């Protein structure tokens, strides 16, 4: 009963706080995260860390739904028109970010292994908070399409960069030879395995949709497919976010008219899950880590912010993207969460076995990523809103809703 009571409290508080933030022009997701911080171990202990660990499957489910809905936004026609621009920007912002974070970390600490690991993790962009802002303001346009594509593709690039960084850092710390399997084969298996599972399940779900007419039944079969995709991905050590992105991508491009109702049924179902997810993200924040972040954390934030903005600008400039994309895309790529934290935990667990130096690297990485994630999750969503607003991609009706305090919702 205590857990049920907590769920009721956080859903109502999350909605109220989100709406209050919306009225003052701040994305609702920031309100959810702040409510989470207040209810977490940092302040009131209403949502203890142990409970969050027990509820981790719910967090995974929320990310799975987000991945599915992001995949549904990635139209083949958009990739055919802007594909070269997307990939030019992806590699430019990802590699530039890794380069800058790696460089400033090595210059400050003199530790090459630590620098390259933090550099690889810095390349990842969290889709959840970023996309939630785009949906909240119903933004449309070249910048919105580019943001959707980049946050979807970024995790794949981050996995590849992490494979190289992990193998190189491990060889330095443990005095081992570089492993081609860890550097390249393992990330590629994870990426292409996720694609294969997403396509296969998308094929069967598309066929099944021909015989499912009732909206309630569509919700059940789509939810079942998303959970099935996630379970298979976790079992085979694949990316369940990428798997569900491919599932959504397949459905929206194979038979868009028939499968449009699939996305509508999920969209009406997931708002409570999203609120719980972002509140849990905030509840996991340990404010005590912020002072411990120190100069390394500050350099990480500066290097990552500069890398994302400069890399996105030059990638967009080189690929002749619209001016709005060139000027504002970098502001929308700062959120960091799931993938970066997951990879940081992997470093922490693996490098602890390599003596004192390995343990120090693991501790530093997990503390820096945990602390900086809180900062960028708070400042990231308002900057996404700033970017789409400056690019003129918030529809006039939504601007009217914002100025009238949401009365037209």
Question: What key attributes describe this structure?
Answer:
single chain, 409 residues, mainly alpha, Na+/H+ antiporter like fold, 18 helices, globular
Helices and strands in order:
Elements: H1 2-23, H2 28-39, H3 49-54, H4 56-73, H5 76-109, H6 112-122, H7 127-136, H8 142-174, H9 180-209, H10 215-235, H11 240-254, H12 256-269, H13 271-283, H14 289-318, H15 323-328, H16 338-351, H17 355-390, H18 396-403
N-to-C series of helices and strands: HHHHHHHHHHHHHHHHHH
State the secondary-structure class: mainly alpha
Within the CATH hierarchy, at the fold level, what is the topology? Na+/H+ antiporter like fold
Q: Indicate the CATH class.
A: Mainly Alpha
Distance between the termini: 33 Å
Number of domains: 1
The low-confidence runs, each spanning 5 or more residues with pLDDT under 50, are 402-409
Tally of helical runs: 18
Shape by Cα distribution: globular
Helix content: over 70%
The fraction of residues assigned to DSSP E strands is: under 5%
Q: Would you identify the CATH architecture? A: Up-down Bundle
Oligomeric category: single chain
Number of strands: 0
Q: C-alpha Rg, in Å?
A: 21 Å
Can you summarize this structure?
This protein has helices spanning 2-23, 28-39, 49-54, 56-73, 76-109, 112-122, 127-136, 142-174, 180-209, 215-235, 240-254, 256-269, 271-283, 289-318, 323-328, 338-351, 355-390, 396-403. Helix 1 (2-23) crosses helix 2 and helix 5 runs antiparallel to helix 6 (112-122). The chain is mainly alpha-helical and 409 residues long.
């Amino acid at each position: 009963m205590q857990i049920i009571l907590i769920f009721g409290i956080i859903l109502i508080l999350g909605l109220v706080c989100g709406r209050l933030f919306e009225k003052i022009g701040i994305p609702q997701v920031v309100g959810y995260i702040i409510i989470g911080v207040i209810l977490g171990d940092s302040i009131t202990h209403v949502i203890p860390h142990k409970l969050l660990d027990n509820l981790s499957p719910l967090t995974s489910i929320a990310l799975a739904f987000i991945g599915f809905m992001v995949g549904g936004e990635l139209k083949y026609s958009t990739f055919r028109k802007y594909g070269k621009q997307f990939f030019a920007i992806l590699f430019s912002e990802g590699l530039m970010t890794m380069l800058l974070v790696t460089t400033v970390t090595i210059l400050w600490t003199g530790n090459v292994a630590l620098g390259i690991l933090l550099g690889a993790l810095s390349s990842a962009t969290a889709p959840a908070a970023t996309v939630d802002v785009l949906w909240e303001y119903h933004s449309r346009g070249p910048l919105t399409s580019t943001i959707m594509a980049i946050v979807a593709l970024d995790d794949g690039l981050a996995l590849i960069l992490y494979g190289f960084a992990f193998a190189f850092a491990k060889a330095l710390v443990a005095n081992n030879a570089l492993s081609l399997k860890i550097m390249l084969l393992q990330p590629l298996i994870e990426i292409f395995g996720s694609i294969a599972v997403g396509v296969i399940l998308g094929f069967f779900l598309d066929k099944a949709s021909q015989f499912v007419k009732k909206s309630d039944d569509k919700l059940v079969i789509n939810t079942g497919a998303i959970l099935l995709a996630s379970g298979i991905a976790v079992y085979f050590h694949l990316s369940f976010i990428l798997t569900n992105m491919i599932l959504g991508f397949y459905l929206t491009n194979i038979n868009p008219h028939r499968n449009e109702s699939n996305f509508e049924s999920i969209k009406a179902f997931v708002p409570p899950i999203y609120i719980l997810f972002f509140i849990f993200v905030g509840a996991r924040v340990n404010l005590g880590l912020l002072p411990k972040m120190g100069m390394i954390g500050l350099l990480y934030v500066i290097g990552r912010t500069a890398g994302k903005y400069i890399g996105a600008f030059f990638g967009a400039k080189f690929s002749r993207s619209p001016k709005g994309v060139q000027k504002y895309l970098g502001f929308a790529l700062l959120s960091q969460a799931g993938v970066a934290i997951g990879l940081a935990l992997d470093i922490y667990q693996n490098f602890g076995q390599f003596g004192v130096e390995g343990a120090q690297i693991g501790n530093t990485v997990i503390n820096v990523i945990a602390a900086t994630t809180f900062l960028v999750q708070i400042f990231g969503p308002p900057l996404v809103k700033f970017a789409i607003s400056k690019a003129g991609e918030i529809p006039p009706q939504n601007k009217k809703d914002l100025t009238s305090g949401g009365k037209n919702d």
